Predict the 3D structure of the following.
Amino acid sequence: QVQVVESGGGLVQAGGSLRLSCAASGFTFSSYAMSWFRQAPGKEREFVATISWTNPGTYYADSVKGRFTISRDNAKNTVYLQMNSLKPEDTAVYYCVARVLTRDYWGQGTQVTVSS
């Protein structure tokens, strides 16, 4: 079955960096887009970034553009989110999402906390 597992979250000071990883299994990873979403306390879940299966094209939320970079390694079935210049408002649980055919598969999330 399709599984996505996030890792790499933690506590970092404002201005610092973190790299999140998402290991995927159960489907042909190289053939599907992968995305990152996040949910801050008391807020709705929001889109962060997506990477297509071909080219690959990337797209970012305005709030992270220029600071975050999404990438993928198809040989390792893994998608990454490099987060630089982190801000306290980036504090959230970060989720990896695989859109396989018509269904979205979500991981359990990884907590990112940015202290001021």
The CA atoms of residues 98 and 104 lie 6 Å apart.
